[in-house]
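Quick one:
INPUT:
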């Protein structure tokens, strides 16, 4: 039960990291290759998709998905 609490409390951090790393990596690549804002938008969208996957995985592996 305590382990589930840690997982649920860490979800905000996981979501933020997915989005920030996607946007940051895209911005860095855009500056490097001169493609602003293309790669930032693509990797930002990939970060959002990854954060959705994190939420779905959390729901499936906890009691939240059984209600």
């Amino acid at each position: 039960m305590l382990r589930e609490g840690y997982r649920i409390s860490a979800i905000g951090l996981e979501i933020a990291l997915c989005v920030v790393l996607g946007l940051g990596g895209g911005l860095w690549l855009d500056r490097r290759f001169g493609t602003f804002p293309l790669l930032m938008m693509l990797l930002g969208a990939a970060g959002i998709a990854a954060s959705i996957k994190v939420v779905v995985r959390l729901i499936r592996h906890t009691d939240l998905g059984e209600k």
